[in-house]
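Practice record 12: protein with manganese (II) ion.
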Amino acid sequence: MKSVVIKQPNELVIEERPLPMPAAGEVRVNVKLAGICGSDSHIYRGHNPFAHYPRTIGHEFFGEIDAVGEGVNRSRLGQRVSVDPVISCGHCYPCSVGKPNVCTSLVVLGVHRDGGFSEYAVVPAHNAWPIPDAIADKHAVMVEPFTIAANVTGQIAPTEQDVALIYGAGPMGLVTVQALKGVYKVKLVIVVDRIDERLAMAQRSGADWVINNGERSLQAALDERGIMPTIVIDAACHPSILQEAITLASPAARIVLMGFSSEASQIVQQAITGKELSIFSSRLNANKFRVVIDWLEKGLIDPEKLITHTFDYHHVTDAIELFEKDQRQCCKVLLTFSQ
Ligand code: NAI
Ligand code: MN
Ligand code: ZN
């Protein structure tokens, strides 16, 4: 089989590898489609501290089960599945409180273990989530990015009365907009970014109001309308955003951080306690595949609005370079494997 392998930072090859056999409790997935995410590019460029090389990247993938290991029901053969990249131990403290996404021995497919940019991938059977026939392949491959939004919103239980401010109109900002509008019916969702084309994408995904903070002050724009957000989600992830979020937030607001910056953020306690703000973080997803498959079945979200490009995997280098360079035109870039 062919796999997309990062041999070492900045060296990507399409390599012939032996067809893997599923061990006990595993299934083999014949990959059809995979999505490119910022973290794939970070591993490629050597910017992901968790990555070891060589590595088959890819943690957003969809395909068909074509072999099962011992103890896995043979009725699963031929099943269409999306794969949850989070592999956890099931018994440590975070696992015991429903947070396998921060398991003390967390393994993420495509990061710590070979992932889905490959003709075949072997994964634990319970990580392969069956996809109902009514959900198209290219929507099924988008389940993982939407689980990030399911995890973020799961932390804060949004209501229709909320006013949400989302920093960043990249893929992560857009999945969050769709969850807040489509699933939770939040009355006002505001998105701030510096790129007009991305803000236009946010509007297509349901944002009620977009602000370009490269052109005008966000604080002034909100003040003009007397708006204090009750939810702030940082899907832009610059270390300076937390303090601004604390300043702009309504008393009793919830703030969610998604970033992995290792730089210090300078924050002042007074406004946090003075407004009794709740500050959450969100990493990957904790058992959210079922939730997102349900959203898709009910038509509450529309992955189509995020997909801007599709490439055959032989052109994976072009696909990643386009994804990295063209933030104005690119949102989700998909790779096709066997069709
Ligand atoms: P992206 O880079 O495509 O989008 C970020 C957007 O934020 C860009 O459109 C950029 O113009 C905008 N931006 C940057 N600084 C800004 C500022 N100060 N004000 C307003 N807008 C600003 O990235 P993507 O894929 O949407 O991911 C966003 C972030 O989420 C990344 O930092 C990534 O590491 C993180 N992430 C976190 C996950 C988690 O589970 N916690 C999962 C996936 C991504
Ligand atoms: Mn991703
Ligand atoms: Zn665990």
